[in-house]
C-alpha cells in the first residue's frame, strides 16, 4: 500500500492536540453519512478517508489514492459538506486531497471562500432546470433486458408524448432495479425535446417536507399552485405517503387537477398500489387508472450487460470472468453490483495487482458468500434430482418425456442458463443433443412460471438454495 506523506510543517505544529477533536468530528460525520450510502461504497470510498485539519472553515481530508479522491469529489462532497456543517458550524467547505497533494495544499494560500449563495429559488421557478435530472441517466445508458423491456417501452412512449398515453404511469419494483434511472431518463428526454414544458421531479420525502412547511407557514394556496400548473409531475418512492392522511388528500386533488388537464403523472414505488397500506381507496384507484409497469430482478445476461456498460463508462479494464463472478450473485440489485465492481477495481488499483477473478472473490467475500466457481452443470442436475426423487440423471439427459421428467429437465435447463455462462448449443449437447430453440423454450417456460406461479417460485428458490448449498 502506498505510504502516506508526512504532514507539512505548516500545519503539524500545534495541531497534535487538535487531532483528537477532529477525529471525533470525522467519526460523527461518517456516522451520519453512512446511513445514506451502501455499505460496500462506504467501506471503499468514505471509510478510507482520513481527516487532516479544519483550515479557515474548510475540512481537509486525505484519500488513499488519486482515484479515490476523484470518486469522492465527484459523488460525495455535498453529502460530507452537509453533515460537517450540521455538526460543526465553522465548517463551510470540504476539500479532499490525494496523498501527493497534501504538502502543496497546506503551504498554499488559503482558498477564497465561495460567495454567499443566493436565496433558494421558489419551486415555481425551478421547473425543468438542467440540474433537476442526472445527466448520466438517459434512455441510451439504460440497459434493456427481459426484466425491464416493458417498462422501457412504456417510459419511452410517455417521454415522446407526455399526457397522451399511459397516464398515470406507475412504476414499481424492488430497490436498486432502475426506477429512478428511468424517471431521470424521461426527464432528460423531455428537457431536450420539449423544453417548453414545465417538468418537476421530486422525491416523496421532499414533497412531504414541502407540504409540511406550507402548513407551518400557512401558505398551502401557494403550494397547490406550484404543483397544479405543471405539465409533467414525477414523484419518486410514493410508498412513503402511506399513513399520511392529509398528504394523501393533497395528492388526490393535485392528481385530479393534472389528470383532467391531460398533464402527465409519473409515479414510482417499491410495491404496486394494492400493496401500499394504509392508502385511501380513491387514491389507490387513481394510481391504477393508467399503466402499471413493474421492473423485475434482471437475469444473468442483463446483469452482465449492465456491468459491462458500467465498466466501459467508468473506463474500468475488467476481465469478463470478473464480471461473471459479480453478475452471478443473482439476488443483488443493480446498485449493489455496481458497488461491488467499484470495490474490486479500487482494491486492485490500491494494491497494484492484476484484477483477477481470484482477487475479486477475495475482495468480495463479505458480499458473495457463495460463488459459482464450484457450481457445474452436473451439480445443478444433481440438486434438481434431489427435488424429484423419482427422476434420475439418466432420465433428465435422456429422451423420456413423462410430465415429471420433462419438468425436471426444464428446471435443470433454467438453472444452467441462469447460473452458468454457457452457449445454448453447449447446453443442448448436455441434454442429448437438443436444439438450441428447445433450450430457449425450456428456460423461458420456467422463467414465466416463476413470475406467475407462487408455488413454482418457492420451488425454484428452494432448489437454488440447494445448488448454492446455502
Strand content: 5-15%
E-strand count: 8
Number of helices: 22
On the 0 to 100 scale, the average pLDDT is: 81
Please mark out the parts with pLDDT under 50 across 5 or more consecutive residues, or reply none: 1-20, 113-120
Task: State the oligomer.
Answer: single chain
SSE sequence, one letter per element: HHHEEHHEHHEHEHHEHEHEHHHHHHHHHH
Concise overview:
With 470 residues, the protein is α/β, with parallel strands linked by helices. Helix content is 53%, strand content 9%.
Describe it.
The chain has 470 residues and is an alpha/beta fold. The chain is 53% helix and 9% strand. It contains 22 helices and eight strands. It has helices at 9-12, 16-33, 39-46, 66-75, 77-87, 102-107, 149-160, 179-193, 204-216, 220-228, 245-260, 281-287, 300-313, 320-327, 334-351, 357-363, 377-387, 393-397, 403-419, 424-430, 436-452, 454-468, and strands at residues 50-55, 58-62, 93-97, 169-173, 199-203, 232-236, 264-269, 291-295. The strands form two sheets. A five-stranded parallel β-sheet has the order 5-6-7-4-8, with helices on both faces. Helix 7 runs parallel beside helix 8, helix 13 (300-313) packs across helix 14 (320-327) and helix 21 packs across helix 22 (454-468). The longest helix is centred in the first third of the chain and has 18 residues, at 16-33. It is globular, with a radius of gyration of 26 Å. Mean pLDDT is 81; it is low at 1-20 and 113-120.
